[in-house]
Amino acid sequence: MGTRGIIKNMLTTTGHKYITKDERILGGEPIIVGTRTPVRAVVELWRMGYSPEEIVEHLPHLTLAQVFDSLSYYSDHQEEIERYILANSTQSP
Q: pLDDT tens, 27-45?
């Protein structure tokens, strides 16, 4: 198996067009394809009251479709994303 096979094995598809997991990025936490932005970042802004359109303004490297897919992923995997939010909020600096 060449380098390509190794890299491919580190990526996990999620059934969501814009969401993937890559063991090399944030330890495999769900991220938006082509970025290092975790789904939890979108969810946290949304839970603070930002609309999807406003989230794109705060994270301008994302498209509206990516934001909506992140929220859809969250809807399907709430417990998983809640664990990442909790782990991230309790880490010491």
A: 999 999 999 999 999 999 9
